[in-house]
Amino acid sequence: MYEVYNEVIRDLLTPSNDPMILKHSATRGVHVQGGNEVTVTDSADGIALFHQGLARKIKSMTDFGPAQNFASTIIHFNLILPVDDKPFPNKSTFTIVELPGLEKLGDDLTTIRYREGPKLTKSLISFNVLINTIATQPYADRLINYGESKLTQLLEDEVGGNCRTQALVCMKTDSDPNLISAVVKMCRELEQVKNFPVLNDCITQDLITQYRARIYNLEQFSAMSTENSSLDLRDQLRRFQVENLQLIEKNERLQAKMDSMQGKFGHLATSKTDMSQQLLSAEEEKLRVSKALIDMQIENNKLREENEASKFELTNKVLMLENDLMETELGERHSHSKASRMTKAKFDELQVDRKRLADEYIGIKANYQELSKEHERQVLRNEKLSIELINLVNAQTTRQNNDRNSERLRVMVSRQSSRRRLSFHIRRHSIPSNQIHT
Question: Which of 4, 73, 122, 351 has the lowest tally of Cβ within 10 angstroms?
Fold first, then answer.
């Protein structure tokens, strides 16, 4: 499961974000070197890996919207079917491709390149050009260039090759008319694309591998010959340019000396006196000119030797700088890999701490729930005790009132009895009136 964004390929089944590179081989064709291949035993494993890959898709933002709108997702399912009467199984690949939004096709492609850069929408634009080219060439002897982008290289079999391809296009009902026209045009061109699917048995696989090996051999030979011829032509052109400059300088010097000699000869022609001395001086001047020419040739040879020496030194410096650049790149890769390992270790530690905190939180939450339940039980108990206490207080108040009433009755009874006793006592000790008169 791969993602192609900004001409960079990432493996979504690995946690690393290191960019992947494409490789050409006779057995597998164009494929991602070092891609993670996982064996799936049932649908649950496949769904889990699918969601895991989707979670690792790019989530950053660009100046033109989310980066996911410019990314392509490719999922390969390698299917193997054993056959009883054949020594090797039949192999097929089921590929799911999610392309970026086709709304970019409604705008001018040149304007999109200038506005969003050459790589952000390169996959979609190259795919559009590829579909347009294949739709106009439905024959088997066509020559199609799949190397415009990483996406088109990965879809060499799916678009115009050994594959039975179906396209699903989703479109909103309230879309712009220009967008609808561009999408309909793309669908019409996709309908005109002609593939050549075959049964991938062992014989067909070997035959395709043989033809791929021949094609890659011819491509490597053509690239090497083109590179060697271009290097030879560049060296010859550089050598001719240097020699031309040297000849121009030499011609200018000779022209200057010739002008001086012509001036001197004109002066000799005008002067009619001392002809013999002038002839001698002319002969001496010729000797000096010839000597100067010899000196110039010697100097020219020295300049050539110095030029060769400087060229050799510059070549050595270029090689040394290339070695330094390679060492610097290796050092940077090592530092980046070390930093990524440290970051991963810190992330693992944070995961452990998060898990520990989650366990502590669960324990604290359980204790809190138990304390809450205990608190509710205590509240109910306190309410019951409060009700019982209120009943006791009411009972105590009633009892006190009854005691007060009984005390009042006793007091009244005692007063009544004391009055009765007093009256009885008075009657008992009183003197009769007849006795007093006697």
Answer: 351
